[in-house]
Every structure is written in C-alpha cells, then in structure tokens.
Amino acid sequence: MLMTNSNDMPLAAKPLDRAAHRRTDEAWLEQAVQDDTVLIFFMRAGEPLVEKGRGLVWMGPEALKVSPGSPRIFLGEDKTGAPVFALNLPEKFDLDGSLIAGVGEFGEFRSSVAALGEMEANLVATARSLFLWHASHGYCAKCGGRVGVVDAGWKSQCTQCGAEHFPRTDPVAIMLAVKDGKCLVGRQAMWPAGFMSCLAGFCEPGESIEQAAARELFEEAGIKCDPASAEYVACQPWPFPSSLMVGLILEAQNEDISLDDKELDEARWITRAEAREILSGTHPEIFCPPPVAIAHHILKTWALRDD
C-alpha cells in the first residue's frame, strides 16, 4: 500500500495530543514538569539525544537538574495523560562531563530520526523547529526590543511593546513533473554524485502552492506545467528549519530541459522502470532520498502506478 496520506508521512505520523489549552496555564505547567509521570527528552543545536539502537533518551523530573534554566517546550500529553517536554541544552553543553554522561549521544538529525519510532520522530521534528526559531528570533520585528518566550514555547512576546510573535512555517512545493511515462528528477551541485530528487521551491506571496510548483519547474528546468494539472500527494513538516513540504505531481507540456545552473547541476527524464530501480537501490547511476523524506514517497507514488 502506497504511503500517500500525510498522517502517515515520516515526521508527521503518530503525533501526541498537543493539549494546547495547557500552554497558558503556568501553574499547571510548572507542576507538570516536576511530576513523577513527566517525560522529558533533550535537544542540542537541533540534534536529539539518542540511545544507540533504542530511540530517544527519556528522563523524568530529574532532567531539570542536567542544565538548570535551559529552555523547555511543552509538546503535549501522551495516551496516559503524561506531560511531554523537550529541553534545549546549550550549544556548548559538555555531555561527557554532565549528569547524563554515557546515556547516549547527540545524533545528526536525519540519521537519528530515521531510526526513531514514528511518535518520537514527530516530537523531535517539532522541537527542532521551535528551538531553532527561538534561537534566531530573539528580537521584536516591530520595535526591536527583546522578546520573551511564552505559551510553553509556542509563542514569543516583546518585553517592550507587547507584540506577539508566532513560529513560522514556510510552505514549499516539492514536485515531480511527468510526461509520456517519464518523470523529471534533478540534483544540486552540493549533493553527492548520483543523488537525484524531486525539484522544490518556496511558495511566494500571492500564489498558490500549485502555482509555485509550476513556476519553480519552469525557472529551474524550463519545464512548463499548467498549475491546474497538479495532483496533490501529501505534505510533510521538514524542520530545516521550518518548512512544510507539499508534494505534487504535475503534467509537463514540454520535454526540453533548460537548466538554471544556479539552482541545479543536472536534471533528466527517467522512465517508470528506472524510477523503480532507483527506489530499490538497483539503478547503476542514480540513488534517491531515503524514506524519511517526502521526495521518496512522491517518486514512489508515481513509480508504482501502472504504465
């Protein structure tokens, strides 16, 4: 069965009850983070603390002693009602000399979440986006004053003018142009040799996600598509730092490729048979993004259809 449901997409699957009504209840939050049932995991510079082969390192209220005063975010409640928090350790936090030395290691995000369970991957992706947003938005966009973190990490508020600021989510069209049994894949110069993926680009003000997809295909590869032909596949939160990847398949009107070499190093049309080889790892030249990325599932959705 193809994964085309956003609720099952990696980094989005099996989310907690976010219990948003708890975020403004300071007394409840303070009690919850010290309760014996609390579940707390650690992040540092966007990376989760993982126990090799066993998922996230989880602790109870004793986690607060590891780095007193470090920012934390309330992520919700699990099925038993236990509150779940993420604790953001300082970027220069010395794991070896800490109270949690030896319990795990901070893992690179992509490789770490690929080994996590669905709920843990969703939690880590959410925490990464929020912590990185706070790290880069310490000042008010209205008056320039310092902001403080409120609503359990889900908002900031200026200490001078009172303006409220909310974490941003940037919509990105990620798309596969198709024509006559072939699809278009491309690669950026910074990617490893042989690695190819769907094309993608940010949605601009005043345009729909379908229009963004058609525009980006033409700008990057010279491929014309009617936005009305766009087929929605699924979407995925992608915390680099705060994108929402919206997957589409569009019917191309031409095959001639005209590359924007500032965006792409290469682009080519491949057949369904080639796409299946790429997905199975048997293609002699090309490999694609792993299953943790929505690009993998867009390609899979198209490749496994009947010719």
From TrEMBL:
One GO BP: NADP+ catabolic process
Native organism: Hyphomonas johnsonii MHS-2
PROSITE patterns registered for this protein in UniProt: NUDIX (PS51462), NUDIX_BOX (PS00893)
Top enzyme category: hydrolase
Annotated Gene Ontology cellular component terms: cytosol
CDD domains (UniProt xref): NUDIX_NADH_pyrophosphatase_Nudt13
Protein name (database record): NAD(+) diphosphatase
Sorted UniProt keywords: Hydrolase, Magnesium, Metal-binding, NAD
Superkingdom assignment: Bacteria
Gene3D superfamilies on file: 3.90.79.20, Nucleoside Triphosphate Pyrophosphohydrolase
InterPro entries on file: NAD-cap_RNA_hydrolase_NudC, NADH_PPase-like_N, NudC-like_C, NUDIX_hydrolase-like_dom_sf, NUDIX_hydrolase_CS, NUDIX_hydrolase_dom, Znr_NADH_PPase
